[in-house]
Write a structure and sequence with these properties.
4 helices; 7 strands; about 20% strand
Length: about 180
Amino acid sequence: MEIKAFKKSKRGFNLIEAAIVLGVVGLVIGGIWVAAAAVQSNMRESDTSKGLLQIVQNTRNLYYGQTPTTTASTDITTSLIAANAIPADFIISTTAAKNPFNGAVTVSLTGNPNDTIAVSMAGVPKDSCIDLTSKNTSISTGIGLSQIVIGSTTVSTFPYLPTSAAATCGTTNTIVWSFGLRG
């Protein structure tokens, strides 16, 4: 009787095992990618909200004690940039500012007399438009928010619900927030 010794052959991954490993790695990388995109979007919205409030407060500080005399809308963006009243990360030149979504930011004094600060932000994506207009209304009404204009829709009843914002916000939006100059 002869005993044969079986040698275990050494072999690497087969094609199916390699495909499974690559699939799992792909899912992990995809999950990280989605999470990073959500974090980046939240940071942009947070930076936009903070920048909006800084612009309003700094404008009020600059115009404290002054009586508006003109009734024509006046773009004061360049003056605010020169006075360091616009957050540094919003400034792209001595005459222009941009928001975290890379859209133009303009600040004007409006009303009759010019007793309203209108902050316009262009290039805001739909999801961020919904979040910024619905979440900021509860915070901003306490500091004098009087209206929001999204495209051609004017909103002056707050809080502005996300369902209403979803119906108003388009793919890319220009949003104008209006605050009282005196608060």
